[in-house]
Design goal:
The protein has helices at residues 23-34, 46-58, 73-87, 110-137, 159-179, 197-206, 210-214, 225-236, and strands spanning 14-18, 38-43, 62-67, 92-95, 141-146, 184-191, 247-250. With 257 residues, it is of the alpha/beta class. The protein has a seven-stranded parallel sheet with strand order 3-2-1-4-5-6-7, with helices on both faces. The longest helix has 28 residues, at 110-137. It binds nicotinamide-adenine-dinucleotide. Residues 18-19, 21-25, 43-45, 48, 69-71, 96-100, 119, 146, 148, 191, 193-194, 196-199 line the site of nicotinamide-adenine-dinucleotide (NAD).
Length: 257
Amino acid sequence: MTTTGLTSRFHGKTALVTGAGGGIGSAISRRLAAEGAHVVVADANAVAAKEVAEALAGEGLSADPLVFDLLDPEAAAAAVQEVITAHGQLDVLVNNAGINRRGDLLSLTENDWKLSFAVNVDALFHLCRAVLPHMIESGGGSIVNTASQWGLYPAPGHIAYNVSKAAVIAFTKNLARDYAPYNIRVNAVAPGEVRTPMLEAGLACSGRTVADLDALVPFGRIGKPEEVAALVAFLASDEAPYICGSVVEITGAQAVA
Ligand SMILES: NC(=O)c1ccc[n+]([C@@H]2O[C@H](COP(=O)([O-])OP(=O)(O)OC[C@H]3O[C@@H](n4cnc5c(N)ncnc54)[C@H](O)[C@@H]3O)[C@@H](O)[C@H]2O)c1
């Protein structure tokens, strides 16, 4: 993504992005940083977090890696406090990390069900509980959660993922309803297929190709991480002051095909 021509919607703001070492999370981090934010590149994968933060810093952007596992609620809460202490503020939280465990109800293991909810849903509970008091005290903030098209229109054989993403959507709406009076906007994005390591892993399991997936999309191709990042940045920015409790689909019309 070229940073030429971008605005400075996040100048002076601090953003924490989870799953920022991955495909969509790294694109979100780059977009927010390119628009002036200091970005905390959070991931359990220390190497990936460091690589992304260093790449951004190398481009003259402001970013730090922060390594913690979302499966550890205390570490997640401590990480939020660390950011607030270090920067004095946390304006934007992007709950983007996620995992995709395959299987229908009979083939899925109970552990994969629990793990899916722990990473995809419980982590939002813990991080938002850590962030909200600060946002309330500072007069507002913005939270964007990465759901999925599959949380709205289930793909076959992915019950844990689909139901956990439906929970992300419900969580988003509940949080928005409760905290809009505090000037905290909470929204979600629901992407269709996007070319990332998660998607590549799915292809390796299914034996399908990117071209197979492209053919299912009316737009003629699957999505790009940068396209999701642009939407997340818009929702997180002051250009969306009245968008709260929304779930925005970004699917190249696949959701209506
Ligand atoms: N790629 C797609 O087609 C697609 C479509 C719809 C929604 N999504 C969602 O977008 C988000 C990003 O997915 P992606 O495709 O970039 O995947 P990805 O696998 O490239 O990135 C996910 C990142 O989350 C991190 N992560 C996983 N478990 C973690 C944990 N316990 N603690 C901290 N970090 C952890 C991983 O280390 C990884 O860097 C996910 O929530 C995913 O469900 C992806």
